[in-house]
Design brief:
Layout (H helix, E strand, L loop, with lengths): L4 E5 L4 H11 L6 E5 L5 E5 L7 E5 L6 H17 L4 E6 L18 H12 L3 E5 L14 E4 L2 H10 L7 E5 L5 H11 L2 E10 L4 E8 L6 E9 L3 H12 L4 E9 L5 H7 L4 E5 L6 H4 L4 E4 L2 H12 L10
Parallel strand pairs: 1-4, 4-5, 5-6, 6-7, 8-9, 8-11, 11-12, 12-13, 13-14
Antiparallel strand pairs: 2-3, 9-10
The protein binds ribose-5-phosphate.
Amino acid sequence: MFSKLKLFTGNANVALATEVAAFAGIPLSDADVFKFSNDDTFVKINDNVRGSDVFIIQPTCYPVNDNMMELLIMIDALRRASASRINCVIPYYGYARSDKKDQPRVPITAKLVADLITVAGADRVITVDLHADQIQGFFNLPVDNLFSLPIFIRHIKSLGLDVNDIVVVSPDSGGANRARQFAKRLNCALAIGDKRRIGNNNNSEVLHIIGEVKDKIAIIFDDIIDTGGSMIQIAGKLKSEGTKHIYACCAHGVLSNNAVEKLEKSPIDKLFITNTIPLSEEKKGCDKVVQLSIAELLSLAIKKVHLEESLSILFK
Ligand code: R5P
């Protein structure tokens, strides 16, 4: 049934790709993906892909530009090797937050990246928790935007918390819809932070929280934790308003700079992230960070796309 399905990976997240392949029950196909001493990236596909339905598993996480170039060059190599369909599985879409021209003379890099992937020769994109749904429209290709929500819901339910005590919190109005879905699935209350960005440096401040949070267990739900600024700001505000415990769920644990150190000192009890982005050993050593696997979800999506089946069940 899967004779023509082939999985490839670059260097972005080999552990995740290996796990996806194990769930799919097929080995990763062989490719050399490396840099020459002059910094040029080179790709050599070592398996025959003529007529194959190929999936490249490559999040465009840190080092973003290197991982992006690996993806583009792999697409090019596979297209020239006569793959019949090239599906890009990009669990974390780098540059997603550059999705609008909200200041004079700034780029829309998420659109530029979509153009690059398209021109390279991709036929489809599968991703997870896109920062903004409208990024799907930056492509004139099918984009399947999977949700991490079921993974977090399953985990939160396993903690055995009383739903009457829980309030799901969106750090800002942009994420309110995402958090509302979470609250609906848990059948619990919702609160929304009134966040304001300060300057260009990704700094933010939470002015108010809309909703009841006193004596509650807060579950902050966001798509990305990068410097940790947004998450820690809202956690501080929740604590000052009398929240009992604070958990946070984020699909993409970028955790740049000293985010983990800040997290350690914050009132957040646990941060649940997925493995769309690999964690360094140092970050894995932080007791507050718990990584949940997205591999099974990705493998199911890959199988369904390959078999031309509906993906709707994966959103339930
Ligand atoms: C913002 O709109 C995003 O959803 C995240 O809240 C934000 O990008 C996280 O970045 P940081 O951790 O640096 O505050």
